[in-house]
């Protein structure tokens, strides 16, 4: 029988990193995947340029940027493999990168450079990669495991599950990790699509969809959490970074708040417009600060005819109330079809934060998106994949 010291199922971000680390420690490693190519999500990430980390993913700032039933769980791995560690790998390969906004690091060129780097590093570390290999079953065998594949049975001392979440089923995402966790007695928290566009009921959509293609900077909030980034109107509802971020916090039946002029100077601007351009209608005034079609929609909602020069302070404040506190009630999300990640997953109570090993099943590790750790948009999810993969590879 084909015997290995470490088998990793899933040749994505987390699995490849775990393979590199275990291989460098001299372990005989095999990485398996049912897909034809490794790292497919890396390849399509960040609009093809891979937002491979975020400089704010560790330390104090990083603390509230990962959602989990136990938000402290991720901190151990994130402190042991930091954004600087991944940048060092990228620099060693001479891959050019740049910082965009908000600490987000992207390749200057193509995301395939990151996939290439990981695959080459795995090979250099002595690890093997076997693709197009469906996994039929996993069983405990003594202190190790048997992995039944479409191409025969493999034995291993340590097994690392890195098969990701449910997002983008078209690309081969499965609920494999969750089923396996349950098979071995681990709990799985509720899973739902996250970093995903929000949809609206037909009545609300009829008002919003004529704005499809319009983008504006806004603060989108849910409770005390808010994100000031781009908001994009689409034919199905709302998207853009601010919406994707809030989708991880929003729940069915709840409203989100949208502040269309989040810099706080809106009232002063309206007063200046009243003084300088008193004959203009309110939507014309607003179109100096908002995209024209959006200003028109807000103006229609306000139902305040006449010239801005005739508006009292109170009336201008009512305009700003509408601009700063637009409350919208999404009806759902676009689902796993377009979600960047899966929120929830394998309950961290069952895992050792330093090694990602299942507490009740020595030798079995779960890493990456499959675990109940979900980062903000902006490179946080890859940093979690690298860090959790690294610590599992270090321990396996
Ligand atoms: P990942 O999904 O990467 O890998 C899992 C692997 O397991 C895959 O290769 C799959 O084929 C394999 N697999 C699944 N089921 C299997 C089975 N039953 N048998 C065998 N193999 C199986 N994040 C970020 O930080 N910056 C970014 O720019 C982006 N951009 C982005 C864009 C888009 C469109 C998406 C969908 C997602 C992102 N993300 C992102 C999120 C990021 O891609 C994600 O968090 C990581 O890829 C998760 O890494 P994992 O290794 O855990 O899973």
From TrEMBL:
Question: Which superkingdom?
Answer: Bacteria
Q: What is this protein called?
A: Flavoprotein, HI0933 family
Which lineage do the record's taxonomy fields give for this organism? Bacteria, Pseudomonadati, Pseudomonadota, Alphaproteobacteria, Hyphomicrobiales
List residues of the RsdA/BaiN/AoA(So)-like insert domain: 192-341
* Record's keyword annotation contains Flavoprotein: yes
User: What keywords is this UniProt entry annotated with?
Assistant: FAD, Flavoprotein
Look up the record and name the cofactor or cofactors this protein needs.
FAD
- Quick check: keyword Flavoprotein in the entry? yes
Ranges for domain RsdA/BaiN/AoA(So)-like Rossmann fold-like come to 5-394
